[in-house]
Amino acid sequence: MALVLCSRCLQTKPGLETKPPGKYGALVQHQVCQECWGEWMVVMPRIINHYGLNLGLPEDRQQLQQAMAEYLNLPV
Ligand SMILES: [Zn+2]
């Protein structure tokens, strides 16, 4: 598994073994460490609940992707 310079914690740590789904999947795999991704996995359902997101709707999926990019400090 490759080391990545994580855009969130700014440390060089092991990255994800597989590319997550979504349009930022490749970015996440190359720029987010396992730990920060794990934190996002905890935060994500709270965001979905907080905003009442329906992931069957493209605009809601877009909103979640945006929230993820901000949380992980992705350069998008
Ligand atoms: Zn990190």
Write structural notes for this entry.
This protein is mainly alpha-helical and 76 residues long. The protein has one domain (3-71): Fe(II) trafficking protein YggX (YggX-like), CATH 1.10.3880.10. The protein is built from three helices and two strands; from the N terminus they run ββααα. A two-stranded antiparallel ribbon has the order 1-2. A hairpin with a 6-residue loop joins strand 1 and strand 2. Helix 2 (34-51) packs across helix 3. The longest helix has 18 residues, at 34-51. It starts with a strand and ends in a 5-residue tail after the last helix. The model has no long low-confidence stretch (mean pLDDT 96). It binds zinc ion.
Helix/strand layout:
Layout: E1 3-5, E2 12-14, H1 25-31, H2 34-51, H3 58-71
Antiparallel strand pairs: 1-2
Helix pairs in contact: 2-3
This protein binds zinc ion.
Number of helices: 3
Give, in order, the helices and strands.
EEHHH
Task: Give the CATH topology.
Answer: YggX-like
Tell me the name of the CATH homologous superfamily.
Answer: Fe(II) trafficking protein YggX
Key terms:
76 residues; mainly alpha; YggX-like; two-stranded antiparallel ribbon; 3 helices; 8% strand; elongated; binds zinc ion
